[in-house]
Input
Amino acid sequence: MAKAGDKSGGSGKKGLKRKAATEEAQEAAVGEDGTTESGVQPPKTAAFPPGFSISEIKNKQRRHLMFTRWKQQQRKEKSAAKKKLKKEREALGDKAPPKPVPKTIDNQRVYDETIVDPNDEEVAYDEATDEFASYFNRQTSPKILITTSDRPHGRTVRLCEQLSTVIPNSHVYYRRGLALKKIIPQCISRDFTDLIVINEDRKIPNGLILSHLPSGPTAHFKMSSVRLRKEIKRRGKDPTEHIPEIILNNFTTRLGHSIGCMFASLFPHNPQFIGRQVATFHNQRDYIFFRFHRYIFKSEKKVGIQELGPRFTLKLRSLQKGTFDSKYGEYEWVHKPREMDTSRRKFHL
Amino acid sequence: MQSDDVIWDTLGNKQFCSFKIRTKTRSFCRNEYSLTRLCNRSSCPLANSQYATIKEEKGQCYLYMKVIERAAFPRRLWERVRLHKNYEKALEQIDENLIYWPRFIRHKCKQRFTKITQYLIRIRKLTLKRRRKLVPLSKKVERREKRREEKALIAAQLDNAIEKELLERLKQDTDGDIYNFPIHAFDKALEQQEMESGSSDAEEKDDEEDEEDVGKREFVEDDEVDESDLSDFEDMDKLDASSDEDQEDKSSSEEEEKPLDAKHKGKTPLKGPLRRKRAYVEIENEQETEPVAKARTT
Output
C-alpha cells in the first residue's frame, strides 16, 4: 500500500510523461477502488513522507524523471512569482518601490583601503613630488622608444609600427642582442622619457614593459588579445598625426592611480581636438583594455565612435621602483597568484 | 683471461649489452668511458683491453687510460691524468701519454679533447651574455585568467563608457565654445539673415526715400526670407561662416581667436547629407510623349 501511495503521490504532482499518464489512469482506477473501500479521496498534491529527497531514489530513470518534474515546478513557481510582482508594480504605478539593483562582481567588490579619495591631501602631495611631477607641470614632453625582445616576428613588428602611429613622438628601434641595461643609459642621454619593450613568445606578443626613463618606475604587464588593425572589424581609416585625447577609466586605488599616471605620461598634454582621436585605457577587474577610436559628435547627446588602431588588454604583473632591473630591482608591487587570486571580488588596480 | 674478440662476439652482435642503444640506422654506446659513443668493435671500452678516453669534470679535462695489465684490478683499472689548461700543451700531454698506442685511439682522443674545449669556451661565453629566462606557466592559471578577462570585457561595456566620458567632457568644456549643431546653426543663421536683410532693407529704404519724392506709393518686397533662398545648404554654410566671422571679429580680440579655434574641438556641424528642417517640395517635370503619338494616328 505504501508503494501505491508513493506512486500516487508522484503522479499526483505532475502528469506529463507517458508513464505518468498510465500511472494516473491506474491511480484513477485505484482511487475509485479506494473511494469504494476507504471513502477517502486520494490527495492530488504530492504526499511524500517527510525527510525524503529525490536523490535517494536508486533507479536512475525514475530519479531523473522526478528531478525534471521538480525543476519544472520550480520554474513555474518562479515565473508565477515574477508575474505577480510585475502586476503589483503596474498596479502601484509611480508609488512602486524602486527596482532592486542586481549584485555584480563590481558592486560587491571588497573594500580596498588604498582607494584614492580625490580630495586626499597626502596623495596630492605625493603626486606633486613623484617622478611624474615634471610631466604634469608641463616641463617635459614625452619622447618614447618602442622596442621588442630579441628576434621579433611579423606580428610583433607590425604591432610596434602601429603603436608608434598611435603614440605621438615615438620611435621604433629593433635591438639585435643588446642588453636592456645598456640601452637605458643611451636612451637617457638622448632625452627619451619612456621606454616600451614588447616581449614576444612563440611569434605572438605577450608582454609589455613600460619604463619611465630618468629613474622612473617600471611596470611589467601581461599582454593578451592583441588585435592588429587589419583584424579589427568595422574600423576606420588609419589614424592621423594629430595628438589624441586620453581617457583613463576606473583607476581607483593608489596603485591604479600611479599606473594611470604612467599611461598618461606617454601622451603629450595638448590634445588636438581637430583630430578627434581618443586613446582609452579602461580598467575593469584588474584588466586594462586599450582602445583607439575616432569620435564625432552627432548632436549634443549623441556621439559616434569608430575604432581605429590596435587593441590589446594588459594585466599588471609587477611594478618596480627604479628602471628595469630584474635582479636587484626594488619591487613596489608584485602579483602573487596564490595569495591574490583567491577572492573573486578583490581587485588591486 | 681477457679475450677481446670473444667479448665483442658476444656483446656486440649476439647477446645483450646493457650499454647498447639501437636505432633504425645505427647503434650507440652508453658507456661513460666510451671514446666515440658509437657501438663499434674498435670503440667499445669493454671489448678493448687497451683503451683511453677524455672525460671532462667541472671544466677540467682528464685523460683516462686502461691497460690489460690492470684488467684484474677493477679498482685500479682506469688511470687518470689531468690535462693542461693550455690547448697545445694538453695535446702534447696526450701524445706523450699515448705514445706507442694505436693510431685510432690517439686520433680519437685528440678529437674528443678538441670538441670538449670548444664547448667549454662556448659555455663561458654564454654565461656572460644575457640569457632568456623561461617562466613556467600554469595551465590552470592561464585558463582562469583568460576566462576572467572575457568576463571583464563584457562587464566593461567599453563603447558605452567611452561615449559617456566624451559627452561628459563636452558638457564641461562649454565656456566660450561655439558649438554649432545643424539645428542651432540653422536657426541662428536664420535670425542673422533676418537681421541683416532687415537692416539692409532699412538702409535701402532710407536711400530711396532720400532720392525719390516723399509720400509716393511704392510696392516694396517682403522682409521675410524666402525658403527657396535658404534651401541650399551651401549658402547656409556661407552665411554661417560669414555670421561666425562677424561675431568673432566683433566679440573677441585676436588673442582669443587662437584658443577659440583650438577649443573648437573639431565639432563643426555635419556638412554631410542635407538636413531639411522645413517642408520642402521638389517638383519634377516629366515629358509626355503619348499625346503627340495620338495626334499622329488620328
Notes: Chain A has a mean pLDDT of 83. Chain A touches chain B at residues 104-106, 150, 177, 179, 222, 224-225, 245, 247, 249, 273-276, 278, 280, 282, 284-287, 289, 291, 293, 295, 297-301, 303, 305, 313, 315, 326, 337, 341 (CB under 8 Å). Strands of chain A lie at 144-148, 170-172, 194-201, 204-212, 218-227, 245-249, 277-284, 287-299, 302-320, 331-334. Chain A has nine helices and ten strands.
